[in-house]
Amino acid sequence: MTNYCFNEGLNRIKVLNPNFEYKKWINNIAIHPESIPEYHFYEKQNPIIKTSYKINSKQITGTSHPDYCNKSWVEVLGNLKRWKLYVDEIHLATENVLNEKLVDKKSVAKYGDNIIVSMGNHRCCFSKFLELDEITVDMEEYQFNHTLYSMVKEYENRGFFIDENQYKNETWNISINNYLVSIPEHLKNGFLEFYDSVMMNIKSIISIEFNHLMNLNNRSKIHFKLECSDSFRKIQNQVVAHKFDLSKNYKTLRT
Asked: Which pTM value belongs to this model?
């Protein structure tokens, strides 16, 4: 089946930049920001604003425009809707890209090493195929929340899944076996310490196997709200059961 956007993109390269030599990057996908690894850990509030900021066109890795994202760059070029408005005459192409007085300014969002086009898709795409070393954009730079990332990974390392929709919530709800435990912000670190402090021993393993929960000493003052209003001791027992299940799964993977 003929790929119109791809073939049209190749034709447009010849018009836009007759001296362009094939580069592998033209087949790279123009990613949507949500495709960026660990996207949900970037703070969406209060980005760093940089106006009239200089970037290299090679730094642009994607676009938030639904009609252009998730296509190769040559397909993006072939799919641009207002192609003729910008390149009626070949000598106007570079001039249009560099013209800072145009109403539709070039705006981008930066997530780590990824720069995503927010506004000015035509001229930003042109800049890549014109291989411009410097273009001027307005940039919003979003900061990665390393603290949140580390906390989520600590929970995942212990076998707990935190839904991405909960990341920014003050209270996290996690499932320990069939019990829902609500952990407020000020106890997220404390719960990990509590979890690590609960010891598995042969008595607890036997009691789990026979579904008889043993009584564990309450060694911590940290209390967590349980949806079913069970006692703190019950949480300890469920942690033991959780650790036991993890150890069984680990042994299964090794055999």
From this structure: 0.77
Out of 119, 142, 165, pick the residue that ends a domain.
142
Q: Report the candidate in 114, 102, 165, 121 with the shortest Cα–Cα distance to residue 140.
A: 114
32 in Cβ contact with 69 (< 8 Å):
yes
Beta strands per DSSP E along 87-153: 107-111, 114-119, 135-142
Q: Give the pLDDT confidence of 90-146 residue by residue, as tens digits.
A: 556 666 666 665 556 789 999 999 999 999 999 899 999 999 999 999 999 999 999
**pLDDT tens per residue, range 18-40:** 899 999 999 999 999 999 999 99
Handedness of CA 24, 30, 34, 40 (dihedral sign): positive
Which residues, at least 6 apart from 67, have a Cβ–Cβ distance to it below 8 Å?
79, 81
Q: What is the length of the chain?
A: 255
Q: Are 86 and 126 in contact (CB under 8 A)?
A: yes
3-state helix, strand, coil split of the chain in percent (to 5) is 45, 20, 35
Do 95 and 169 lie in one domain? The reply is: no
Domain that holds residue 8: 4-142
Q: Which amino acid is at 125?
A: C
**Residues 37 and 103 both lie in one domain:** yes
Name the token pair of 128: 């890549």
Cα–Cα distance between 119 and 116 in angstroms, integer?
9
Q: How far apart are CA 140 and CA 50, in angstroms?
A: 6
